[in-house]
Amino acid sequence: METVNDYMPLSNDWNNERLQNLKQMFPDWFTSEGSLNIDEVKKAVNPDSVNETERYEFRWFGKSQAKRNAFTPSNATLVFDEERSLNPETSENLIIEGENLEVLKLLSGSYREKIKCIYIDPPYNKDKDFVYSDTFSQDKKSYWEESEYSENGVIIDTNSETDGRFHSNWLNMMYSRLLIGRQLLRNDGVVFISLDNNEIHHLRKLCDEVFGEENFIECITWNKRVPKNDKGIGNIHEYILIYVKDVSLKHEFTMRKGGLDDVINLLAKLKKNKVSIPEAEKEIKKLYKKNDYDRGITLYNSLDDNYRLWGKINMSWPNADTFGPRYDVLHPKTGNIVKVPDRGWRWKKETFDEAANIIDGRYQNIIELHDGSFLCGKIWFSKDEKTQPSSITYFDEVENFLLRSIISTKSDGGIELEKIFDGKSFFSYPKPSSLIQLLLSSFRSDSDDIFLDFFGGSGTTGHSVYKLNLEDGLSRKFILIQMPEATSEKSEAYKAGFKKISDITIARNKKVIEKIIEEKKSLKPDLFNEDKIDDTLNGLGFKVFKLQKSNFPRVEFAPNPELSDAENLEALKKYIADKENQLVNAFNRDELVTEILLKNNFTLNYKTVAQPHFKKNEIILAKDEEKETLICLDVSIDVDTVEYFKTNTDRKFICLERALDTTKKYNLKHYLGDKFNAF
User: Are residues 303 and 378 part of one domain?
Assistant: First the structure.
């Protein structure tokens, strides 16, 4: 916002210049926010002048409030947006439009310990406009009224680098959201967080506190291959932090070997053309050299007669501090004892004999290779006994290897998105789906596992889940949360009708699904007959929900200082009565059902079934994967309905408190106990 000072010539800020000079000489005197720490100056001049108890801790301005913000209840709810959804009847994927902290709070009961994986690509804290200002509290009326998007509570603040709370603002935003995120994770859950140099050092310490330092797995360096001139150096990398909920559980992260398809295709070509084995091996090595593949693939450089690719594995004892077993191994051709590794063999003699196919001291099958070496079972021998043998592993037996701490993929997320939107660039710096797919496939997951991304952006995580499911036939689910942040009026996105980033999130996933369905139809159109459609779609689609105010009366009454206490009390009573009348007369039944079920920890993939055996009240049965309840939203509960629950006490029953008189409420509570709830 412009001020008068923007148009006034100002003198030099000499005080700031002196502070900057001081910071250059004594950086340890300054906080991470750039403020001079007077205690540090005092300690430098007179160490005994400052009394303190030193201990390691990570602190910043607003940390305590951020933690409180995470665990204060939300006044909002979520409403289903059928018009913007796609195949909602057959899909359990969710795209939620709204401020992510409030949405996470609403999900914290329904999805507690149900999320298998969290992947987020949060703001890198580079932009001066900061759209995650968590300065609201439970009773702050202006949360909805003062926001640019009053329906969704988006607040934009300034967060310039000259602001003393530049890092604190970002940390506060992340802290509260990660705290709730941890609650949502299953015990075997995994967390991936993408970031660059700007805040990675802070994020590591923050995650150590939230998830536990012992649950840190790795900080992956993502080589984007596209250099960026940053401070006089070509920066080609970003980072991905990996944490788990509980490191004591078995976790293994693997990745498909890079270039695997290229190698497979070349092998097929060589075999088809009947290229000689020596020449074929040369072609394989040429491919490796050209593409600079990881050693996890290049060690496989030999072929058997059926063009099956294999590689040699060293058989020396791997531990430098101990020794392995020592025994004699005879060369299959010369019969002489081969060279024994200095520190002994990797395997016991029994294991070696089994691998070499030795029975009663004799090799059962000896194959001489084109270079004069030999294969005996899965043991390779040189031409003579002077070279120690190696075990062999076939290429097709190990398509995966451990996830590397350095990942090299193209930073082509922008190009990918442009292809989806017919050449239009609607989003800046989206992550490529190949990168996220690599991460999401690096650990074991099953059908019905839920992946959560609460910085949904352009919707790449959803795109990646679809691709992953197509590859292995599973039906993983996702939840994307994206704020309705405004697109610039000058942007291509805005001109194309995408007024909010969340519009892009939804549109991208629609286009991806439409393309998948189109390709499926072209291959097997009969699969889309009505009786087969559910299985064919296999979760392709999503439900859209939007954050909005609660349907229930909230006390936002402000006493009038010009009135007496008694007059204000009467005014308050009238206010509450008016709100209750609004609830009864003007509410949307579907919206209210959703809110009631959320407050009772039902997931958003609940189903409802009418209960026609209730003659005097309209009652539905609501179910999700674990729970069920009967719900009635009538303005009056009939006596017959109350009598029904006298003998039918197996199900929970929820109704409006206004629909009950004292007697009915007492009886329902008496019959159902904790299974009865009145709103």
Answer: yes
DSSP code string of 489-521: TTSHHHHTT--BHHHHHHHHHHHHHHHHHHHHH
Asked whether residue 286 is assigned to any structural domain, the reply reads yes
Say if CB 120 and CB 194 are below 8 A apart. yes
238-277 pLDDT, tens per residue? 999 999 999 999 899 998 877 788 899 999 999 999 999 9
* Residue written as token pair 């691998």: 355
Greatest Cα pair distance, the chain, in angstroms, is 111
The 10s digit of each residue's pLDDT in 477-527 is 999 999 998 888 888 999 999 999 999 999 999 999 999 988 888 877 776
Predicted structure pTM score: 0.80
Instruction: Give the tokens for residue 156.
Output: 């934009």
What pLDDT sits at residue 539? 80
Q: Whole-angstrom Cα distance, residue 30 to residue 451?
A: 41
Residue 190's contacts (CB-CB under 8 Å, 6 or more residues apart) are 116, 117, 118, 242, 243, 244, 245, 251, 443
Which domain covers residue 623, as residue numbers? Answer: 565-678
Most confident of 120-129, 144-153, 576-585: 120-129
Indicate whether 121 and 191 sit together in one domain.
Answer: yes
pLDDT exceeds 50 at position 607: yes
* 319 and 426 belong to one structural domain: no
Structurally, how many domains does the chain consist of?
Answer: 4
| 632 contacts 657 by C-beta, under 8 angstroms | no
Q: Is 184 within the bounds of a domain?
A: yes
| Structure-block tokens of residue 383 | 């031409």
Q: Provide Rg for the chain, Cα atoms.
A: 32
Q: Which residues contact 265 (CB under 8 A, 6 or more apart)?
A: none
Shared domain for 112 and 247, answered yes or no, is yes
Distance, first Cα to last Cα, the chain? 44
Q: Read off the DSSP letter of residue 330.
A: B
- State which H helix or E strand residue 568 sits in: helix 565-586
Task: Judge whether 552 lies within some domain.
Answer: no
Given 379, 402, 425, which residue is the final one in a domain?
A: 402
Q: Identify whether residues 243 and 368 lie together within a single domain.
A: no
Express each pLDDT in 441-481 by its tens digit.
Answer: 999 999 999 999 999 999 999 999 999 999 888 999 999 99
203 assigned to some structural domain: yes
